[in-house]
Amino acid sequence: MTFRLIYEVAVPQAPDISKVLRQIEIFGPVVDAILVPDNHLGRVALSSVTLGIEVKRSGFDPIVSLNARDRNLLRFRSDLLTLGAYGLNEVLLVYGDATTEARTGLKVREMLNHDAPEGMRRGATAAIGNPLRWRNRADFLFTQLAFGREKPGPWRESESYDRPIYCGVIALENGGLAAKFLQNIPGLDAPEGYLEAFKDDGEAGFRTALRELSELREAGADGAHLVVPAGWLRFAELLSSWRDSQKLEGTDEVRPPEPNRSRA
């Protein structure tokens, strides 16, 4: 059984790609793909298209996010052509987080309807339990962060969806960071005792994430979309060990990142 690990890179809001290159160096060897967000949270950041090309040049598989909020149809089609020209073949189509700036009016369903370069796979986001409707046309789906509580199996069957579903998993480095994220992300409800666990185990957030990966794999998910706000190096080490223990496809080629190049 395959189980795809996808790491979401933190995109800088300054003209400097060193932070991205460091994340690629750490996580590239232990995941199967790297997701590049597009002006995440409505904040101006480096181009997802450009960074996706950089991920590809580094020897890893990118999934480039394209939001409807910031582009019209002409720009969207141009971005697809650019990505296709550089050999990138996966995009995640999203509406975009709320912002005070005016929206273009483009809809994700329109983005799915238009032709893409041959071989390009277009994904969308969906909430487990909600009807897919037009999202059923997507080549793959990303689901919400949910601490592994919501399993895709029954929902997949009820929606007759037979393509990959990648479930959201968040790995939080410490209790303070965990409390902040739980407060600021609507609908992100932690398991009972989650915050208290940090008092006895400083890596409780990382261990919870790894346990979620195991549960999702057993529940028939096709993979996981990983959000790791901090502690990149340590979590990559733990993830590499977890992957070896699960005997995932490609494990023989996976190696932990070098720990002595710079601090992360």
**Broad CATH class:** Alpha Beta
Provide the gyration radius in Å: 18 Å
CATH architectural name: Alpha-Beta Barrel
Question: Could you say what the CATH topology is called?
Answer: TIM Barrel
Describe the largest sheet: 8 strands, parallel, barrel
In spatial order, strands of the major sheet run 1-2-3-4-5-6-7-8
User: Any low-confidence stretches, pLDDT <50, length ≥5?
Assistant: 251-256, 259-263
Q: Helical region count?
A: 9
How would you describe what is shown here?
The chain has one domain (4-253): TIM Barrel (Alpha-Beta Barrel). Strands 1-2-3-4-5-6-7-8 form an eight-stranded parallel barrel. Mean pLDDT is 89; it is low at 251-256 and 259-263. The longest helix is centred in the C-terminal third of the chain and has 15 residues, at 204-218. With 264 residues, it is α/β, with parallel strands linked by helices. Helix content is 34%, strand content 16%. It has helices at residues 18-27, 48-57, 73-85, 108-113, 153-159, 175-184, 194-197, 204-218, 232-246; strands at residues 4-8, 33-36, 62-67, 90-94, 121-126, 140-145, 165-170, 223-227. Strand 2 (33-36), helix 2 (48-57) and strand 3 form a beta-alpha-beta unit.
